[in-house]
Structure formats: C-alpha cells, structure tokens
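User: Structure please.
Assistant: Input sequence and predicted structure:
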Amino acid sequence: MLNTITLNPLEQSTKKIVELLTQLTQDYQSILQQDKSSLLENFPLSDHEFSILEEIDLLTTELRGYASQINVNQQIKNPDQTLTKSRNLRILTNPSLAELYFIKNEQFPLIHQYLQKLDYLKLLIIDWLMLQK
C-alpha cells in the first residue's frame, strides 16, 4: 500500500525549507571555513566588486533570511517583492560563481553542493510564496 501524504503542499514546503535551512546553517561554517584560503587563491579579487566568499555570503544571507522568516513567522514580509526578487536572483550569472560551479566543481565539491542547496532553497521559497497566493 502506498504511503499517503498527510501534509498539505504549503506545510510540505515549509517543512522542507526548515530542513534545508538547518542543513545550510551547519554546512556554511564547516565548508566555507575549510576551503576559505583555497577559494581566495583560486578566485582572486580582480575587477569584481566582491570576492567569491563575499558573493556566497550575500546569497546565503538573503536566502537564509527568507527561510528564517518562514521558519519563525510562517510568513515573509513583502511577499510580492520577495517573490520578484527571488525569481530574478540568478546565482550563476556571477562569473566567479559560474566558474566555480561549472569548471572548478571537482576541486571544490562541497562548495558546489552548497551552491546547489542554495539554489534549491531559492526554488522552495518561490514555491512557498506561490502557494501563499
């Protein structure tokens, strides 16, 4: 007999966002600290406004902030603005992140996985916001 899903789609999304938020919080400290110096060597600050670590920090802060609002308040302030901003958030348009993701992914497999999780969190947040409408 098939297992039946007892949670509604919004509850499922919320649960998955909270699980991923917990996982990303744990990964953030261990993964980035472990590869910090190697990342800075491989992606020196050149014409870019931010270092690769700062770019990852910005993405992490933004997405984890939204996920934390969902976890704590079961809502997001300014949901329409957040939905638009999340949809327009293109992680791989940043040249350094794209290089890390596509070219140097074998050299930094844990960070590659971390970026995948961030992107997945972004999609879950978009889905959650759409379910709110």
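The radius of gyration is 16 Å.
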